[in-house]
Design goal:
Shape of chain A: globular
Strand order of the largest sheet of chain B: 2-1-3-4-6-5-8-7
Oligomer: heterotetramer
Structural class of chain A: alpha/beta
Shape of chain B: globular
Largest interface: A-C, 74 and 72 residues
Number of strands of chain B: 8
Number of strands of chain A: 23
Helix content of chain A: 25-40%
Bound molecules: thiamine diphosphate, iron/sulfur cluster, magnesium ion
Strand content of chain B: 5-15%
Radius of gyration of chain B: 21 Å
Structural class of chain B: alpha/beta
Number of helices of chain B: 11
Distance between the termini of chain A: 36 Å
Largest sheet of chain A: 7 strands, mixed
Radius of gyration of chain A: 26 Å
Strand order of the largest sheet of chain A: 11-10-12-13-15-14-21
Order of helices and strands of chain B: HHEHEHEHHEHEHEEHEHH
Strand content of chain A: 15-25%
Largest sheet of chain B: 8 strands, mixed
Number of helices of chain A: 21
């Protein structure tokens, strides 16, 4: 945050602001207006700019839950050096309207800066220590580009103000603006620049400069949201068919794939419903093209039957679940990590499958590639647990090395057999299918089925056969487990408190660890990327700490622990495993994690008997 | 893949063992159907047709849902899938769209097609996905032992309608015509030659072809289709000679005939299949991106992201 | 078993059989033939007879997996005093054909009796010590009723033989036969009796008599299978609407309800699929008539979305899941207990619901009534976990006291409000709905929804509201938990080994305990009827034993324990909790439980560190 | 319950507060629809009709699936349900069959009705379950922000068809006629009087009545229905005066008219509703068991079991 980085302590007080730019490591900027004001665009340009200037960025946006407009915010955290979370407290609040001021002033940290439109906002008496800067945003924009266009222009005026305040790279910004708006027509592009310069020209007393960063990447950085990262991960992995049905917040995966796949010789089908979407995904995978389906919320429940079929038939395929608030229709535009149980247990019968979760936007890219490869290597469906926060958040990440990660997974039609057994029980127990079009040497062709079957795929109700096949489907996951890397630690391998996390909460958890350690506490974190099967060494890691708290965005359940915690307790029978959970539909704040952690430590007399 | 698929077109892919095969090369498990079940004849016609047409053995692909009739793929010694109840058409869509080198056959019952699978059937039809769907209609649920099916006639006594069915049944032909299917035929498993004729026409159709084939369940609805079976004193009424198969309204009118109704080709038009349309889209997009390889495409895209 | 009860030890040897009837406590009789032979009928009549003569009976039948005929068996265990399981070993094998002899001779216990048709079977040399009795069943039946009808008659001839062999109540049997067959026509009924008497007239050297039982019941006994018990439980509970879709082995619930409900002023709808079936069940329940839907296997997966809706909307309804072999289409006609996980966790999001499991055919009746009442009391969906074994098994049980258990649950349309809040968060957190047709005093009507909502049922995305409502849905189940009785013990409250069971495995588990204790081992069993939430006191019970084995018909999973075991380990973090599992699609044999138990005890050096 | 329900027929159940109410008594949450959304007019017509017909306030029951249009029940101050995407008709079936004292209205969009809900719509229609289903067709997915709907015309540019829709669309009228619906009408939300007329006729139909009501999505498909809106220079073509609403083939022919097609009552016949048929079954069975009370019935049954 800004004042941590302030050169002279004085700044923390309320004395008249100085004019020389102060050097900062990062800044959390919240733009609060209405969804029509295009504040998303401001955030987008700031993020893109950051990407091009070796700054890191993490954004956090709320999508209005209602259909028609309404209040909306966009929060961007710009920094040099890895930015882990969107930031708890706001360093700079830009308030477009009175309601923006009212609803968000509390998020401003002490001594933070309030930038408000004097034409719209009358700051109310507030005990908060802050530096309030009024700018006639509306009227100045009107001056710059005329009244009619003003609504389109205010965001650009503010972008100009921010460029001035943070000494951003103006030529680069101008490039981006013209590149982006020229499509929309000459006059639009002109107005955009007029408004931008009017803002940049406005003289501000408060200015900052980001501490120069040492370039960390050779290939440079890119800026995407999580769903885009999933899409391009799938394309790089060689996926050429997808089936889906629209549902928030997963829809953009389908929408972008629908547009991109044809260029790659593939296609994406918007099915009539989720049942058809997953069925055609099974079909394409059976045909030799390991395929992907994506959904959220209710769609996950609807796909559980076919997922079970893929487990039984041992067909590789990938389901990307962009988790949202549940149950039922729940909270479509909020984040939750409450689909872990259904991902592991969501089909009838014993139906073991692979479950993995990305921990950042960048990781969405690599996790999707890995999902495709695990599905193929183990002839098993793989569920990728992303979530609404990852999906809609824009982050900068190192541009991938496509020469390395792009792969061709087109089918192998080489003759198989003789005596070809797709479900051969010998060895590792992994099925090896021959897609249709594959000749079988002895002319005895296999069948792929959801009935219990013999090694050739033909129905077999013999008691011993079912027991054997159940064990076979389990055995291959044991093999995978044995090959998994130990989980990633953040902080020392032993100490007082271990925070366990999975998925999108990694950032805030690691930042919590950093803060706690900075404050002299003995706290580490371990992040689980593989949720079925689990990685080796977790038990040992936990045993090296006094307290084990599993941090999850899901319900603490009837006994005070969440979904991953329940799985870990079942696996390791360690009663110290407890949960730090919340279900308010928002990502964890670093503060929330630390407060809950301190409280639970206090409550624990003897952790072993806890 | 549409692209890749072009690398293995029917002609090139003559496999090691695809020398001319006979019916008996296609025989797999002995069917578990009851003696006299109408499904036997459809199976043997499928064998006969494949023998005649010599589709390369490794390209024969049969997909089914769940039901007595849906056990079909087990009895065919060729690539086959036994999927989920009602979802066979959706599964076959995934196969068809990724594999232009195959012509997928789907087999299943009336419950599979019109009850749980009714929506998939309709959308597969309107999207005109290339495949042939043979609906083996016995007007009853066989595998689950005699419940009412959407095609069971009013008054039919079943375990779920002990006093006789009261729900107005689905009219398969009307449904398929209204859905926009491009090839719609009706046949009767007791008339093998007719079934064979319809199957061959269907197989040659460039799009979604569907045949409702009455197939008697001797166990739970014996004699259901005698009234259309000459050998049982019934009258087999072929589609009138003058019928214009491109006339939707005329086809609908035929479908309105009382049971046992007409048999033959009700409707047949040529509308580009989704397979063809998606193929065009691919060609266009690849042209626009002048056939750039995946790596190039991704690099270009990521230039925009940086 | 017979020889346990033999008067003189001599009988265990091979000396010429004596002729005076020997007194036995129970007998396991396996009839092996083809499905056309009507051996089911023999078993049925024996069961009914037992019901009418204060004998207990438990049957076990295999349904041929293929569609057309084929080999089939029916096993009936007759006894005085509670019969817990269908019996591991056969005391009397009746073999109609050579294949019947070949396939089943191994199930005959040493010194058991083989009764075979000399016209069809040539006993092969066998090391087994047995008493083989050949009877020309086919030809004698032909003599009795003529060749043409013989296939219909053989089963009745055998029934006659058994009546003679076990000194059964012939007048009662004749009554039943005439009552049953007169509908089928005069000649049929006559032939039946001719064949029966021919069999009864045949002079046998081996005869037995059941030890007289003291009548235990005042209302007398009834004989039904588990699905029938569910149906009449539902009718007694007041259920007047059901929706379903055919699927084995749950179909008969739908079929009988379809026939019975109209007499009660209700109806059952065969829907187009499971999604519609559960949807209309939700609809009827919303309308005020707590309704029931039933399914198996794939149907459970398909219903998970709507179940989640009912959790969120807090609509009472009952889903009866007759479990079968999974995953996917699996083994439709075999038993498995592998739907516990999906029952608890099968919907997306945090979706807590109530899960209970009956342990016998009789319990299917009372559990269904309880399910209806729990659903209504907690405004929550309830899942009843029956299984294929319970569903198809015929048992005798005490006739229910309908005056006591029949209830009227028709809706309450009394005016509600003012300020009516169906989702009032005050107090126990249980929703109280007003069905349509209910006037609201202040004219402000409620909405029922699957979106997260405020107390009036209107959509609310406020973070604090979601957290509150999630807690509310959890809180009411905590309340239920606090009201549950402690689980049922079989055997002393402390000792060396505790066997934990749920559902249909109760019989074999308790019989295993009895056998082990008879052999001087310290073994007890606890049976869990409530699987979500769990009953109080389980932890304490387990702590009173050295070994804790959870006996389940599901996969031992990746870590050597099944689904309930996993839940118990998560709840109590007791590493001694391990699994005795099998997945061969058949009920547990008492022997299998004991063998596995002994093996695991041997393998365990220090149970605490196990 | 069909029986019990008879204890609370419409007339008797005059509740405490069912004195004559006005439109504004029915207003609940302010609709979250976009300015100009066609759904507003359908909502106000619903208010107006209820005010006119004075259905007892506590008996008004609106059921919906998921979509912009499906948020309808939140905006009506009366009993209402917001169920699952595509399953509203099946849910309403449970309400309708248990509550003869109610007339359920179902509201939802084209995706809800024809895509994910297509099968339920069809089976509810053929079973002729008493309810009125108003399909608010904007030919696009609104709530999820502009994907192709089964009713989107060919060439429609959406997020899932950026180069234009290629899938042959569903024809709602054809589908409903073929399915065996007994009351089928078509209207346009920009002509409130016409909508009101259709809704009242539908409400009075003894069975399943359905109205496809074109309702513009000003956000994602503005102007979609101008060609049928006189105020936008379009032509509103009513069903021809001579049309026989009991003639299925004639109705199908009307349905074949090119967009924007005809508006009004396409088809209307009287076939016993499932509600009526199940009611008869109950009456019969109760007669056979001479109205025995549950306890007696159960005792009798269990006599057979002992
Ligand atoms: C999701 C699901 N629901 C129900 C079933 C049970 N089931 C299997 S086949 C079948 C219907 C059989 O009738 P039909 O489709 O006409 O085929 P037939 O046996 O008559 O040939 C049903 C209900 C299932 N396997 N899966
Ligand atoms: C099972 C399920 N799948 C997908 C969704 C997401 N979803 C909500 S509304 C909708 C379609 C909206 O279109 P339409 O039914 O035409 O209603 P409109 O918004 O246009 O009025 C979709 C796909 C969902 N809520 N549930
Ligand atoms: S039950 Fe009917 S449909 Fe099934 S195999 Fe037998 S005869 Fe054929
Ligand atoms: S998005 Fe379209 S359908 Fe939805 S409210 Fe806005 S205008 Fe109406
Ligand atoms: Mg059938
Ligand atoms: Mg729509």
């Amino acid at each position: 945050m800004i004042n941590e980085k302030v050169a002279e302590p004085a700044a923390a007080s309320n004395k008249p602001a100085n004019t020389s730019p102060r050097v900062v490591k990062d800044a959390v900027i919240r733009l609060a207006g209405n969804s029509q004001d295009g504040i998303q665009a401001i955030g987008g340009f700031l993020a893109r700019l950051a990407g091009r200037t070796d700054k890191d960025v993490m954004t956090y946006m709320t999508i209005p839950a209602t259909i028609s407009g309404g209040p909306s915010i966009f929060q961007v955290r710009l920094g040099t050096g890895e930015v882990l979370s969107a930031g708890d407290e706001v360093d700079l609040l830009v308030a477009f309207y009175q309601h923006s001021y009212r609803d968000h002033i509390d998020t401003l940290r002490d001594d933070g800066i309030l930038l408000y439109d004097t034409d719209q906002v009358k700051p109310e008496a507030s005990t908060k220590r802050m530096r309030a800067i009024g700018v006639p945003i509306t009227s100045r924009t009107i001056e710059a580009i005329g009244g009619t266009a003003k609504d389109k222009g205010k965001n650009m005026f503010v972008l100009g103000l921010l460029a001035r305040m943070f000494d951003l790279d103006v030529p680069k910004l101008e490039q981006m603006l013209t590149a982006y708006y020229k499509g929309k027509g000459e006059d639009v592009a002109r107005n955009v620049l007029l408004a931008f310069h009017a803002g940049y020209g406005y003289s501000l007393t408060e200015t900052f400069a980001f501490r120069p960063a040492t370039t960390r990447t050779t290939r440079g950085q890119v800026v995407t949201d999580g769903n885009q990262a999933v899409v391009y991960g799938a394309l790089a992995a060689g996926v050429r068919f997808g089936g889906g049905y629209p549902i928030t917040p997963s829809s953009t995966i389908m929408e972008i794939l629908r547009q991109e796949l044809p260029k790659y010789g593939g296609l994406f089908v918007q099915a009539e419903d989720e049942l058809a979407a997953v069925a055609m995904t099974c079909g394409a995978s059976y045909a030799g093209y390991t395929a992907l389906t994506c959904t959220s919320g209710p769609g996950v429940s609807l796909k559980s039957e076919a997922l079970g079929w893929a487990v039984m038939a041992e067909i590789p395929m990938v389901l990307v679940d962009v988790q949202r608030g549940g149950p039922a229709t729940g909270l479509p535009t909020n984040v939750e990590q409450s689909d872990l149980n259904i991902a592991r247990y969501g089909s009838h019968g014993d139906s073991p499958r692979i479950v993995i979760a990305p921990c950042s936007v960048e990781d969405c890219f690599y996790t999707t590639i890995e999902a495709v490869n695990l599905a193929r290597a183990y002839s098993c469906p793989v569920i990728v647990l992303s979530d609404q926060a990852l999906a809609t958040r824009v982050e900068t990440w190192e541009r991938p090395d496509f020469k390395k990660c792009v792969q061709d997974i087109s089918p192998n039609f080489a003759t198989r057999g003789p005596n070809f057994k797709p479900y051969d029980n010998a060895g590792d127990g992994i099925a090896h299918h021959a897609p249709p079009g594959t000749p079988i040497a002895d002319g005895k062709y296999p069948v792929v089925t959801g009935l219990e079957h013999d090694e050739y795929g033909h129905p077999a109700a013999r008691p011993a056969n079912h027991a054997m096949m159940v064990a076979k489907r389990r055995r291959k996951l044991k093999l995978l487990e044995s090959k998994l890397p130990p989980p990633e630690m953040h902080g020392p391998n032993e100490g007082n408190v271990l925070l366990v996390g999975w998925g999108s909460t990694r950032g805030p958890i690691q930042e919590a660890v950093d803060r706690a350690r900075a404050a002299g506490e003995s706290v580490s974190a371990v992040h689980l990327r593989y949720l079925m099967p689990l990685q080796p060494g977790i038990k040992e890691i936990m045993e090296a700490f006094n307290h084990v708290f599993v941090v999850e965005l899901n319900d603490e359940g009837m006994y005070g622990y969440g979904q991953l915690a329940g799985i870990l307790r079942a696996s390791f029978c360690d009663a110290r495993i407890r949960g730090i959970n919340k279900t308010d539909g928002l990502p964890f704040k670093v503060r929330e994690i630390l407060e809950r952690m301190h409280q639970m430590i206090k409550e624990t007399k003897n952790p072993v008997l806890a | 893949m549409m692209a890749e698929a072009k690398n293995v077109p029917v002609e090139q892919a003559k496999p090691a063992d695809s020398s001319r095969y006979t019916k008996k090369d296609l025989v797999a498990d002995h069917p578990t159907w009851c003696p006299g079940c109408g499904d036997f004849s459809i199976l043997s016609i499928y064998f006969k047709m494949m023998e005649k047409r010599q589709v390369p053995h490794e390209k024969i692909t049969s997909v089914a849902g769940i039901g007595c009739s849906s056990r079909f793929p087990y009895f065919v010694n060729a690539h086959g899938v036994h999927f989920l109840h009602g979802r066979a058409a959706a599964f076959a869509t995934g196969v068809s769209l990724t594999r232009p080198d195959l012509h997928v056959f789907v087999f299943g019952g009336d419950g599979d097609a019109f009850s749980i699978g009714g929506n998939h059937l309709e959308h597969t039809a309107r999207k005109n996905i290339k495949m042939t769907y043979v609906i083996m209609d016995n007007e009853v649920y066989g595998l689950t032992k005699k419940q009412t099916s959407p095609t069971s006639p009013l008054g039919f006594k079943s375990k779920t309608d002990p006093t006789g069915a009261i729900d107005y049944p689905v009219n398969p032909m009307k449904k398929l015509i209204a859905a926009g299917a491009t090839f719609i035929a009706r046949s009767h498993s007791h008339l093998p030659n007719h079934v064979m004729e319809m199957m061959e026409l269907a197989m040659d159709h460039e799009g979604f072809s569907v045949i409702e084939c009455l197939s008697e369940c001797t166990e739970f609805y014996p004699g259901a289709f005698d009234s259309a079976n000459p050998r049982k004193g019934g009258v087999f009424q072929p589609v009138p000679a003058g019928h214009d198969v491109t006339d939707e309204l005329a086809a609908y009118k035929l479908a309105m005939a009382p049971f046992p109704g007409y048999f033959g080709l009700f409707y047949h038009v040529n509308r580009p299949s989704k397979n063809a349309l998606e193929g065009q889209l691919i060609t266009e997009m690849k042209k626009r991106t002048n056939n750039a390889a995946p790596v190039e495409l991704l690099e270009k895209t990521f230039d925009r992201f940086s």
